[in-house]
Amino acid sequence: MDNPEENQQTQERLIGDLRLVIENAEELLKNTDQYTSVLYRSARAKLALALNAATEELARFEDEQLGRMIEATRTANAENADLSGEARIMRAFH
């Protein structure tokens, strides 16, 4: 069974890979806009739909990751009795 740290690294790698795929797809769309045949237009439309879905998934993954980070920081603040704003900020960066 994966431990939480390995799981987090896997999720971060997935997010990074998804960002790269999105960037490459956007570049492909930009570089093929001069082709106007039906075949190209159809392929570009399919790619644009897939790109939109991937972008939405990436946003969802990033929101979930941010939520986990906020909750982990909140838990660490409570466990360590970080009462001041300075202590909470310092904990967030450790």
From TrEMBL:
Q: From what superkingdom does this record's organism come? A: Bacteria
Q: List the protein's name.
A: DUF883 domain-containing protein
